[in-house]
Amino acid sequence: MLSEHPSYEELTRDFSWSIAEKELEYTPGDIINIGWHCSDRICQKGKADKIALYYEEFGGTRKQYTFNDIRLAGNTIGAFLRSQGIAEGDRVCLFMDRIPELYLSFLGILKMGAIVQPLFSAFGDESLFVRLENAETRAVITQKKHLSKVRKIRASLPGLEYVIIVDSIKPSELKPGEILFSLENAEPVEKFEIAPTRAETHSLLHYTSGTTGQPKGVKHVHYSIMSQYLTTKWVLDLRDDDIYWCTADPGWVTGTSYGIIGPWSLGVTQCVLDTGFSAQAWYRFIENYKITVWYSAPTAIRSLMKAGDELVKEFDLSSLRHLASVGEPLNSEAVIWSGRVFGKQFHDTFWQTETGSIMITNFPGMKIKPGSMGKTFPGITGAVLDPVTYTPIEEPGNAGLIAFRPGWPAMMRTYWRNEEKYREKFVNGWYLSGDRSSIDNEGYYWFIGRDDDVINTGGHLVSPFEVESALLEHPAVGESAVTSKPDEINMEVVKAFITLKPGFTTGPDLELEIMNFIRKKLSPLAMPQAVEFMESLPKTRSGKIMRRVLHAREWGEEIGDISTLEND
Ligand code: 6R9
After folding, report:
1. pLDDT tens across 365-387, in order?
2. Separation of CA 449 and ligand 1 centre (Å)
3. Helices (H) then strands (E): counts for the chain
4. 345 and 474 belong to one structural domain
5. C-alpha to C-alpha distances, 430 to 15, 118, 209, nearest whole angstrom
6. Is the pLDDT of residue 210 over 90?
7. How confident is the model at residue 568 (pLDDT cuts 50, 70, 90)?
8. C-alpha–C-alpha distance, residues 469 and 215, integer Å
9. Which among 16, 230, 279, 281 is least surrounded, fewest beta carbons within 10 Å?
10. 168 within some domain
């Protein structure tokens, strides 16, 4: 079984990124464009009539697109944006559900040389506002159903010149400055002049949350395709006849690196299911499309486990050949369970918005150690560092900070207009991931936890700072502290601790009101699953709220040094 894959040693020996350059026929200095590589080039390789995308949505609508269809759609959208006056280097935000236009606009924006800024469509107006303001976004492409959120903030965003709506809206419903663009009614553009983007030309701006300050825009370049192409081929094991399903939304990096660029740069057919989670719907989708390679996340896998083994037996899932997971710790039970019910174990992969591509993984040809993330991808030098000296810990099994030597193609180039925060990520020539793990004597990484207060709920990062700031905007809230609490399915969920302003009284109504306030302003992910009203919050003598005291209490951990606590 294992012999059909090269061994880890073979892959790592003499590794060089020129392997990807050669396969993608790229010579350093040439024009390189992700949009072109994912569509035109595939057509030129004789796959114009191959299906690129099978799409299905909750209501049952199905659509399909060949590689020639996506090439044409990319041209048509690119030409439309150019005709409107959108220029190379402008930030164009995608604010849509997982409809085909999202994927096709992604190609179109890149083809005309602008920068894609994907944002999760469940974001509320506040989450949207801070990211559009920070990026000085010039255009938003959205759907009618999300338009009200854009309208609410538009007056405060003078740089936002274009709001483009891609689905059915009556021209009479449009407000000044809003433009209707229907791909179905547009004249397909056969010949399009691709922008002469180079390796280091800016391609994507993905926002990610840190512990402090506003979310940071992670800058990626067109050359990142080298990493995404090769990791998709070697780690996700995609082959020409595969039918691939990445369950991530392109509002997050997995949904772009491996939900668009990876599979399409290889000319592989992929499927998109635009629904929320439902075990039945997911199994039915795999059965109907005969999905062979499936890339998902631990929270989804745990939810499938909860739905039970019996349900699995109602579907024919024999098409599945390779399974992989990312985003949060994949517990060994989930790996073992998947081996039992699907006959295939999930292969864990570890990476970040900042790394742009998979860094640590269980390769198809490698022994899986359930509970471990696996080993570094060839060409990646990784280590766990001593948190004091920032030098590699040589002793196997000792915990340290996960760090990588920069230099792989998909590494972020900076944080958008925040060079200082970017520089803080490097010490002694190492890029600090912000996560902790140990490495065993065979080079396998064992995840321990994050090294900051960022909450990873169901694989999505939430900044406690962002939630705390939003809470303060509620009229009843005096002070707030946000941390996580354990959760069976999502590993952790957001919990808010609040003191009230004089004149307000605690109660379940207020608790619900506050939860909804955050859901609408930020997103359902950032919404606290619990609100605890307190007389006062634990603070240092200098008045800083001590989140870690609350965190330790929620998790039943030792509180540690609280000698600086003011109100103990
Ligand atoms: C791709 C993506 C990155 C953070 C990362 C870490 C956590 C990702 C993981 C994992 C344990 C894994 N994370 N993969 N934790 N095991 N296999 O998720 O990017 O949204 O930037 O999140 O997610 O904490 O630092 P991003």
Report:
1. 888 999 999 999 999 999 999 99
2. 10
3. 19, 27
4. no
5. 20, 28, 21
6. no
7. very low
8. 12
9. 16
10. yes
One domain for residues 401 and 475? no
Which pLDDT does position 546 carry in this prediction? 87
Q: Are strands 115-118 and 62-66 parallel, antiparallel or unpaired?
A: unpaired
Tokens 């989708």 locate to 285
Are 374 and 366 in contact, with CB atoms under 8 Å apart?
A: yes
**75 CB within 6 A, ligand 1:** no
Question: CA–CA separation, 405 vs 385, rounded Å?
Answer: 12
**Alpha-carbon torsion (120, 125, 130, 136), positive or negative:** positive
Residue linked to tokens 């230099």? 407
The pLDDT value recorded for residue 3 is: 53
Q: What is the pLDDT of residue 562?
A: 65
Residue of 544 and 510 predicted with greater confidence: 510
Provide the token pair at 115.
């920068």
Q: Who contacts 401 (Cβ-Cβ below 8 Å, separation ≥6)?
A: 384, 385, 386, 387, 390, 432, 433, 434, 435, 436, 451
Q: Among all chains, which residue has been given the structure tokens 């307190």?
A: 534
- Euclidean distance between CA atoms 374 and 362, whole angstroms: 4
Whether residue 73 has its Cβ less than 6 Å from ligand 1: no
548 shares a domain with 472: yes
Residue type at 493 in one-letter notation: V
CATH number for the domain including 503? Answer: 3.30.300.30
Residue 543: band (very low, low, confident or very high) from pLDDT cuts 50, 70, 90: confident
**What would the pLDDT profile of 426-485 be if each residue is shown by its tens digit?**
999 999 999 999 999 999 999 999 999 999 999 999 999 999 999 999 999 999 999 999
Spell out the long-range contacts of 162-167 with Cβ–Cβ below 8 A and sequence spacing 24 or more.
162/84, 162/86, 162/138, 163/139, 164/139, 164/140, 166/96, 166/99, 166/101, 166/105, 166/141, 166/142, 167/99, 167/101, 167/143
Residue 328 shares a structural domain with residue 389:
yes
Closest CA to 270 of 67, 48, 37: 67
Confirm or reject: Cβ of 371 under 6 Å from ligand 1.
no
- Strand-pairing partners, residue 376, are 360
Ligand 1 and 358: CB distance under 6 A? no
- 348 pocket-lining for ligand 1 (C-beta < 6 Å): yes
Q: Is residue 201 part of a domain?
A: yes
**Could you identify the atom of ligand 1 that is nearest to the CA of residue 254?**
1
DSSP state of 212: S
- In 332-389, DSSP assigns E strands to 346-350, 360-361, 375-376, 382-385
Q: Give me the domain span that covers residue 405.
A: 8-437
